[in-house]
Specification:
By secondary structure, the chain is α+β, with helices and mostly antiparallel strands. About 20% of the residues lie in helices and about 20% in strands. The protein has helices spanning about 5-15, 285-300, 310-320, 325-345, 355-370, 380-390, and strands at about 75, 85-90, 100, 105, 115, 125-130, 145-150, 150-155, 190-200, 200-205, 205-210, 210-215, 220-225, 250, 260-265. The longest helix is centred in the last third of the chain and has 20 residues, at about 285-300. About 35% of the residues are buried.
């Protein structure tokens, strides 16, 4: 049996000349392709979280380090105080013997590796380094150091007019993959590494994502999503294996007074395999996320409750059905939609034109829901809205 509005409720509907729902500026509603089995968001989904605002940093010059972006975590900023964030790579830990000179952290040959006290995982890492201006030695004996993330070394070496074995060049994944090009500046000048590091992920002893490293040297792409083959080493092939969730950043003492400055990182969001929501998810994860989104939308719909203008609440509830076909919500939407149609039919003929945009908006919402099989194409309020649009000639351009 079809429910109808009471005269009091009908009167409240008619008090408003328009019930149009103004979508927030984050995007349109009932618009792009709906969520599917592995994607919890619709295309152009206004319910998808907005990107966090980050203030960009500035680029470095030979004389002056640049300013990190606003969300960067500073590991070394050129001050002696920031050296306190580092320690000698020994167990038990002890203070490092590396020194701070003119805004740079300099390796004291023979003092050993240095590591951050802080541990972190997937990241965007920024490191600036300079080999000694006075050229001494050749091949691997000239300006040698290394940037280590969980045992994976991005080689530091003065290869300016100094050839060596290809997989040992500056910006190589040491012993694994040479850089695509040699984009080094002369010795004594600062070189810039911008590294994107995604560690390998293992579950139940098996790899589910091998992990990758991308490296820019002085703004030039030199490692393009290079697969991690395991911790790197000298003369030995890397061997795959489980990685920790987090680890320190290490810098190598290879017997050369290499300098470092302006070291910072930005944590990266989790991948889908770790519970992140960007990219295709497993069907189970996508279903769980869609259920969460639907619940949030229904919660928001409750804040729109207005006896004088119930349309925004109804459309918001209908939007939640795109993510989860909740039976109670479906029943509520059907009831409110039926009441809406009755109310519009009661509008005097000379006032009906004022309802054009609103009725078309509701019809478009129903059309979208029917297209994605959320409602039956024969859903009575949809049929009535389509009929009204045709009778009034609102479907003509």
């Amino acid at each position: 049996m079809r429910k109808t509005l009471t005269s009091a409720a009908l009167g409240l509907f008619l008090l408003s000349s328009s019930y149009a729902y103004a979508a927030p500026p984050s995007g349109p509603v009932f618009y792009g392709d709906a969520p599917d089995d592995t994607h919890p968001w619709a295309i152009h989904d206004r319910n998808r979280p907005q990107p966090v605002v980050v203030t960009p940093g500035t680029f470095s010059t030979a004389e002056q380090p640049g300013k990190p972006p606003s969300d960067a975590i500073i590991l070394f900023d050129g001050t002696p105080e920031s050296l306190a964030k580092w320690e000698a790579d020994k167990n038990p830990p002890e203070a490092t013997k590396w020194v701070v000179k003119t805004g740079a952290m300099e390796c004291v040959p023979g003092s050993g590796y240095i590591r951050t006290k802080e541990k972190f995982g997937d990241c965007q890492l920024h490191v600036e380094w300079a080999a000694p201006a006075k050229v001494q030695g050749d091949s691997q004996g000239r300006g040698n150091s290394g940037v280590f993330l969980m045992g994976v070394e991005i080689q530091v070496l003065d290869n300016y007019n100094n050839p060596t074995y290809a997989d040992g060049f500056a910006s190589s994944i040491y012993s694994v993959n040479p850089p695509a090009v040699n984009a080094l500046r002369p010795p004594g000048e600062y070189q810039t590494y911008d590294i994107v590091f995604r560690r390998p992920i293992y579950k139940d002893g098996k790899p589910v994502d091998p992990g990758y490293v991308t490296v820019f040297l002085n703004g030039v792409l030199v490692q393009d999503h290079t697969q991690i083959e395991g911790p790197t080493g000298h003369m030995g092939r890397a061997k795959p294996g489980a990685f920790p969730v987090a680890g320190p950043l290490k810098l190598q003492d290879h017997g050369n007074p290499v300098r470092y400055r302006n070291i910072w990182y930005r944590p990266l969001p989790p991948r889908a395999i770790e519970g992140g929501t960007n990219g295709p998810l497993t069907p189970e994860a996508a279903t769980a996320k869609k259920k969460e989104i639907a619940a949030d939308i229904r919660k928001d719909a409750a804040t729109l409750k207005d006896a004088k203008n119930p349309l925004p609440e109804m459309l918001r509830l209908a939007e939640s059905l795109v993510y989860e076909k909740d039976e109670a919500t479906m029943k509520q939407v059907a009831e409110m939609a039926g009441q809406y149609v009755v109310a519009v039919k009661a509008v005097p003929a000379d006032k009906l034109q004022d309802k054009k945009n609103e009725v078309k908006q509701v019809a478009d919402a129903f059309k979208y829901l029917a297209r994605w099989k959320v409602i039956d194409p024969a859903f009575a309020p949809k049929v009535e809205a389509d009929k009204m649009i045709k009778e009034q000639g609102w479907d003509k351009k």
